[in-house]
Structure formats: structure tokens, C-alpha cells
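Support case: iron/sulfur cluster complex. Customer-provided input:
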Amino acid sequence: MKKIYIETYGCQMNEYDSEIVKTVLKKSNYELIDSLDDADVVLLNTCSVRDNANRKVYGRIHRIKHQRNGRGMKIGVLGCMATNFRKKLLENPSLPIDFIAGPDSYKRLPELIEGLDNEGKDHFDVTLSEFETYADVYPTSREKGVNAWIAVMRGCNNFCTFCVVPYTRGRERSRAPENVKEEVEWLASEGFRQVTLLGQNVNSYNYEGRDFAYLLEMVSRVDGIERIRFTAPHPKDFPRRLLQVIAAHPKVCNQVHLPLQAGNDRILDMMNRTYTQKEYLLLVDEIREINPEMVLTTDIIVGFPTETDAEFGDTVRMMEEVEFDSAFIFKYSERPQTVAARKFPDDVPEAEKTERIVRLNEIQREHSLKRNRAHIGEVHEVLIDEENTKKSDEHFKGRNDGNKIVIFSKGNYRQGQFVDVKISDATPNVLRGEVERVLEK
Ligand code: 5AD
Ligand code: SF4
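Agent response - structure generated as follows:
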């Protein structure tokens, strides 16, 4: 029985995919192990979204190469780098890669692994499918915890000009709502309390005319699952009905991740985001009108090609206007194949990108602190996810409905339970408080 060790890089979709890979391999009688030391095969499930993600993997491959010297250990590259850098990976003699498999080829992994021993290099399958959704593979080896990720759609048709995803993950396709519901029912029976529905762009979820709001309603009828989250919607044509479903269903959490990317209309147009600053702000107003408590988070890219200081200033103004609860801020990273890489020079100097990212992070820290401090005195329903924190064994950690981290003293309760916590303190990253009561859920 071959022993397989898998490492995952990148987004939650990749985490989910690694569970699919493990399930496929277990079915084919491979043994999955937790350490590289005894592995016969090492799989790296990789990310391509920014260059630093790539570099991390190249570095890792070189380190594994030294470790495996003299042993027959094979290395396989999976995920987005597999599709994006197929040629580079296989033709670079300093990279000891034995096989590669793109995100739609995981059912073929046993073949790719077995082919190795006979023929050596050049084993790859990076074909992107219009249909593969792995609807027939329910991951059976998920890490135990309170939240389970579940991909409800794969691929992306938006072609934002900076983004490699449409090239590495192919065209959009959605899983049948019944199939998603069945997996969620199974997750409930396994003890999970929360599911997070994943898609590159969930508001284009569509299965034979049934949309994402329909899917959310269906999933919210599953007993045992108490919280439903999803990520990520696109700000263009955000359906009002989706907002109503979030507001109407207590299990659907009051949190929307709404990637802004940039605050200037010329840059948004160059990014092919298909909304303007004004349209984004109207959507935020609409969301807050339906629920003033909605937690809003975002992604922002600084230093997109040709972005001037004044245009960056528009992003600053948008942040001031919206006051996000939190934000992921990235420096633009040119990705091969993308429209931006082909058409626009990556001409904002690195030092300028650094200055802009530092500035936005400072602003965001202030906003996060302000918005978190506004919760002091409130009582939040918290789902306990860890019976310690990184810093202390005396504290438990959980999340409130808006997905904010809440820290409170250890007590007679456990992971997976809901407690009411009275918030007494806040930092930009966490809320702190004390448990008032344990909830029956
Ligand atoms: N450069 C920098 N950030 C990027 N993202 C996607 N592609 C790039 C890129 N080429 C960011 C976007 C997206 C998040 C997942 O990653 O902000 O929303
Ligand atoms: Fe990339 Fe845009 Fe698709 Fe998101 S919506 S995955 S940023 S192309």
C-alpha cells in the first residue's frame, strides 16, 4: 500500500479539493499519512493567484528534493500551478516533478501515480472540464471541527483582467442543489455545525434555472446545521432576493464578503469588474438598509497597472465611506495568461505598491477597531471552535454570527456548542468577553 502525504496551499477551494483528492485515493487503497518522512508520494496542492504563492511552492519542491535524495519518493503537483505552469514544471530539469494533475483531473490520480513506476516523467493531466463538479465524491476525511467547506460551483467566467482563475480552473459549472443538500445532510450527521458554501463567484450559481438564493434556502432546511456562510459573491448584479434570504433565514449568517478590488472607475473598468464606484456604494447602502448589522469584508488590490496616486486616492475614499469590518489587501501581481499581463505593463513601482498597501492596512486597522469597539456591551451568540487559543490554554475561541473571532474564559462548555458572550473589549482582530449562558442548539 503506497503512503501518500498531501500539502495544501492557497484558498479554501483548494482545502476542499484536497479532501476530494484524499477521498479518491482512499477509495483506491492508498494510505494517507500526516508526515513527509515515510511518504512514497508527496502531493502539493498549489495556488497561482499571486506570485508569492508560486514561489513558496517552488521553494518547497527544492527542499523536498533534498529530503528525498536516495529514496524513491515521487512528487506530484496538483491545483492551479499545475494548469498554469505545466510546461515550466515538467521541462525544468532542476524541478524533480514526476506528475501533475489540474483541478479537474483528480479522479485520474491513481492512474497518474501508478504510471510513474513504469515510465518516469511526463505524466500529466491538466485538461479542464466543462462538467466535472465531483458531485459523486463526498469528502470523507475532512478535518474534524465545527465548519465544513463545500464547493457548490467550480470555475469562473468573469475574466477579471488580473485574475488567473478562469485559466487555471476553467469555466463555471454548478452542482445540483439536491446533491449539495445531500452532502450537507451527511455533514450534519458527522457532527458539523456550520457549512461554508464555496464558489469563485457564487451569485452566478445556476443549476437548471435554480439560483444561489434557492440553494441557500434549501440548505438552511437541513437539521443540525446551525450556521451557513458563503464566499464569495461578485458586486455586479448582486440579486436583491439573495439579500432577502440572508435577512430572512436565521441560519444564514449576516456577513457578506464583497470584493471591491479598486475604488476608481477607470481602474475598475481596466480590471473588467463591470461595476462602478457608485454602483458598489449603492449596493452597500442596499445591504445596510436591509440589515444595518451586516458585517462587510472585502478584497483590494493596490498598484494595478497605470494606477495613479489620485486613482489610489479613490480607493482610500471608498474605504473611508464604507468602513469595512475587515479587508484583505494585496499588491498587484502579474499573472501569466491574463489579459492584464498581455495588455498592461506592470508599471507601478514596487516601493509605491508597498506604500499603498501599508496605508490601506493602517486605515483598515482603524476601521476594524472602531467597528469592533462598537460591539462592546452587546451580547453575541458564539459558536465555539477551539478549546484554547494560540496564546492561552485558559481561553476558548469562537466566532460570532458576523464571523468575528470572540475570545472568552475557559469553562464548562465544549467545541461545537453555542454560548452567549457579553462583549467587554475589542482589538482590530478580536472581540473579548465572558459567557452569560450556554445555548441549547
Ligand atoms: N494580484 C493581486 N491580487 C490578486 N487577486 C487575484 N488575482 C490577483 C493578482 N493578480 C486577489 C483579488 C481576489 C483575491 C482572492 O485575490 O483581490 O479577490
Ligand atoms: Fe478571479 Fe474575478 Fe473570477 Fe474572482 S470573480 S475568481 S477575481 S476572475
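The mean pLDDT is 93.

Case will auto-close in a few days if no follow-up is received.
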